[in-house]
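Subject line: Sequence and fold of a protein, written as structure tokens
Area: Proteins and the way their chains fold up in space.
Start of record: The labelled sequence and token lines come straight after this line.
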Amino acid sequence: MTTVNEIPRQALLRRGFALEYATLGWNVVGIMVLAVAAISARSVALAGFGLDSLIEIGASTVVIWELSATGEARQKRALRLIGASFALLALYLLAQSALVLGTGFHPRHSSLGIAWTAVTATVMFALAAGKARTGAALDNPVLKTEGRVTLIDGLLAAAVLVGLVLNSTLGWWWADPLASLVLVYYAIREVREIFFAGRGAVPAG
């Protein structure tokens, strides 16, 4: 059986492009679905998750740009852009959580939101695993790092899902913003690693 490391580099690059285009397409559709769900349920969490989809679109675009050519300078620039995506994600999570907790906003039940976040969590976890394996086989730090953005997207979808379900079944409107705060630490850690701990450094040659 052929392992990932035995696949030719060009095939791995095609797989990397396919993973990023799949992520891009899913999030473009997601923005439209989440807009409908957020408006109908008056849900701040779903509206915020739509913003997260925009961040993921930006990160995927960066990786597609980086995979289109090689070079240390391009990889470093791409990593910095992805690091900025993590920073925006952390700010979004903090702002969303503070707004929901501060206002005590109670969203309505959203069957569409529950269904979409459940499927999105599954899809994002699968894409993140694929990016991690492909990025490792290519020794591409940009693809591996963006895979962690996708992982956070999946975790956030799961957190929003839990919040929506608890709000619908038990009336626990505060569950989602509290779950989102857990992910802030992860996003901030990635920003620190990319910009201050040397992960963003791409070895020469």
Q: What stands out?
A: Residues 199-205 have pLDDT under 50 and may be disordered. The longest helix spans residues 9-41. Residues 3 and 137 are 10 Å apart (CA to CA).
